[in-house]
## 1
Amino acid sequence: MSSSLCVLGLGYIGLPTASIFATKGRQVLGVDVVPSVVETINSGRIHIQEPDLDVLVRAAVQSGYLKAALKPAAADTFIIAVPTPFSVTASGARIPDLKYVEAAARSVAPVVAPGNLIILESTSPVGTTEKIKVWIDDELSKLGRKVDGLLYAHCPERILPGQMLKELVSNDRICGGLTSEASEKSKALYEIFCTAQIFLTDARTAELAKLTENAFRDVNIAFANELSLICDRLSINVWELIRLANRHPRVKILSPGPGVGGHCIAVDPWFIIDAAPAEARLMRTAREVNDGKPHHVIAQVRAAAAQQKNPVIACLGLAFKANVDDLRESPSLEIAEHLAAEGFKLLAVEPNIQSLPARLAGKAELVSLDEAVSRASIILVLVDHRSFGSLTLAQLAGKALVDTRGLVK
């Protein structure tokens, strides 16, 4: 069983993973290319917001089992947990961008040893685990090194921001190796902390399984978002409609919103679409529906603003989902940015951040909920944070309300 690990990427996935292995008595080196991240972690602090993660990291660092560095070092297992975004071509096509995965893979070539296990946790297009082997072999060749018996596997994470530490332990896991030995060794590794079932498969199936999980969610959210567009056209309350339709024992419609954000659901379906464009017609349409929803919300705000003189818009929430500080691929942030670009006066309320992101700096004010409600003439609910749950229609009397979450009663 692996006694030492090197985790590349200390973000929302890599840091919890590195920390939990360390608290289980494994020597872990966490690697990140950002010096401030390395410094923060080595001081026992965290640079991202996640319930109880600060306690876990502090314990891992103080125990001596977790250290952070800018470059990898020798270990029994290497876990790659770096971003996998997409890039947009001139024609508008979304294609996977694997530069971070490739850089991480090549960076371990100087320190790998025979029998090492290399695990890809990053959600990736089908075939990426095979590419990691090619990249490492290529880098070894350039270095004049010959290292036999390296094992490769894809073991995708399945954790939800806001519940990461619980789900890291309790969610079922998939281990897909390029060989059966790699699958088995990966399973033995995750059994160190995972209390749920761990299923073995091949790498390509594991890669597509994770993409499928997020594409499934995206398609179902698109159905809800499309319903909200239909209801707006027909002057029907979509929340009432969904509540009644869901009384059917085999119907479970999700909640609509301002779009779909985060690094997973808004990104991963494009990896499938890119791999099989002729076949992935439903997934493409779902992506188009969800990507188009912010424009519908902006149009609603414009219509409300046209009825007022000198409107002031309060944007309640900038994160991509409730009760997190994660702004990646956030439709709420996209909407706020568009409104600011159109010259509207914006008050942003995001209780999980200390300062506005660069995209809004100087274009909006970050204020409290009470101040926003007091000063704004248009209330735009973008995220259903817990701290917004006390808002009532009575409090907003005389103000225009655009509620993308069905929050205000």
Note: The CA atoms of residues 109 and 203 lie 21 Å apart.
## 2
Amino acid sequence: MAKVHFIYFDLNTGYFPSLHHGLAYIFGMLKSNHHEPSLSHVTNQAGLEEVIGHLENERFDFIALSFTTNQKKYVRSFLDKAKMKTKLLIAGGVHCSLLQEEIFKEFPEIDAVCVGEGEYPLKELCEKFDSQTNYLDTPSFYFKTKQNLIKNPISRLQDINSLPPPDYTLFDYAKIISNNDQCFPMMLSRGCPFDCHYCCNHAIREIYPNKGEYVRFPAQDKAISIIKSNLKIYSDVRKIALADDTFTLNKKWLMDFCRVYKEQIRLPFLCNARVETIDEQVVKSLKDAGCISIDFGVETANVWLRNHVLNRKHSNAQIKKAFCLTSQEKIKTFSFNMFGLPFETAKMAKETFNLNLELRPDFGKCFYFYPYPGTKLYEKCLEYKLLLDNIESLSGYLESPCLKEIFITHKEIKKYFNLLQIFFYARLVFSKVQVPAFFENALLKILFLFKDPILFFLRPTASKGRATKSRNIARNFAMKFLR
């Protein structure tokens, strides 16, 4: 049986290491067909050096790299140092699916690129290898040979009910779940029908011959079976994070799921939602099933920026209503935001900050906009020459703004980014102890006066010992008392 070693690059993201749902489903597929997947989950520089040493002493049939756009510089460092004993070096993931054959130019060492979902293509590749038949015609793979580039057709999207359950056991799942206050992240559905211009979904969807079937929800018995299968590997799970792009997208499916989940699982859970999908019936069903927190993408408060640049077609009134309905049912709210967007001004950034003050979410997160190759907003950035010359050196969307200072300065972007960070951690405490709104505003003004020493401990990319430790404590507090 084929031995495939996966290397998942997960360094300096500003997040704690987490489970990778796509890889877990691939592991499940390969194991169920008697192949031998193994994993190196690289979360820091020391881990990268350890993997390099490991590969010098082990031989694998294939080595498969999984990485995002933000991780490219670590992949480059790895390839410069690693001496691998393998017949084929494969790359996959969203970045590879967006760039496809361009990956061979970025990384000449790579022999093959898996484009799109990888469960069935990797299974077929391993089967052809085992039977010693020609694997260069494997669907969804591009191969670079000494003679030419082979571009095979992309496989059709498959019925997700036919997939084996995901297998998270190759990860250090006990540590990851424990660090998340015993919260097990899972993913049930696939795809997103919306065309947000900063997101990869609209670009990824186009690569498939049956792109109309891009959004897929499992049958109810399959969904519950996946959850039960996951829970078997770790008995101390206290809550579940359902990481589907928009868990509330299909209202009928959601109503049925909530009913069955309440009967058979009965664990508190978190989920992601779009504000357009929220109404009283949805929120009440989620609450009745055990939902304790909903994550919403606010992104920006400026209507023109949201509608015409991000292509998110909803109003501030809809955002406020969704937060209000959710809070009324005593479900926690989480707000995602971005700063440093193309064409964003200081006035627009301030609007985003002020909208969050009005929403009063229980917690939240803000990011610097990062343009992903293949997306419509990336193309817009190229068209208007907005990208920094050194953008390749940036490793994440928590590190620094990545656009030129044309409409707003980096100092102004960082100002609102930092103020919103402080606000979110303050809200975490205020919502827990139920500080009255008028008193909360006074306390916030005091906190903002001391923003520099506070940010020393909250800055997501801080690397100094005390700052890192304090940030971990703050995050654990957030996971325990909010989630």
Note: The chain has a mean pLDDT of 92.
## 3
Amino acid sequence: MRDQHESKTKLLDATLKVVRAKGYSATRIEDVCAEAGLTKGSFFHHFKSKEDLALAAVAHWDAHGSQIFATAPYHDAGNPLSRLIAYIEFRKAILTGELPDFTCFAGTIIQEAYQTHPDVSAACERNISSHAKTLEADVRAAMRDHGIRGTWTPESLALHIQAVIQGGFILAKAKGSAAVAAESLDHLRRYVELLFGTGRTRRWNRTPSKKH
């Protein structure tokens, strides 16, 4: 049983690596098996098809990411806005290694498969949206702390943060460097600071003061 569990994990880890390097459409079962150092017989012992593998790999990616972010240092910041800023800085800090090492498995699949593989794409969307949701409580608390009441919601800002991150990955692939993604995160930090700070955006969104 242990060997079966280990071989399945090897196939899932290999899928994350190969798809982030080659894309979902170009990834073959043979590529995953070669990366994992296993046979196709072992593959079909665990998975019925490439799509079955992809769905399991999304769940594997979600579990792996949840563990990393649950213990990340940005949670230690002293107030909600500081935690949001620290989250952005953490995302910048983990732009390390080669492009396939830091780009998003779920985002990579959605870019290719949102029409052709709806079940896999939907699983990836749930992964990205559920991660965005982990930021909503701090956004909501920061809005309360800073007297912000605008037409936007904690959910919309949390998703916008993810949109910038995913867009940064695309630019990094286009430019062949993490530097452009890091610059996008610097802009994101400035935007969030302006949104909650003393700039013009805050004046537009601040809760009107009561007249005495």
Note: The CA atoms of residues 4 and 46 lie 8 Å apart.
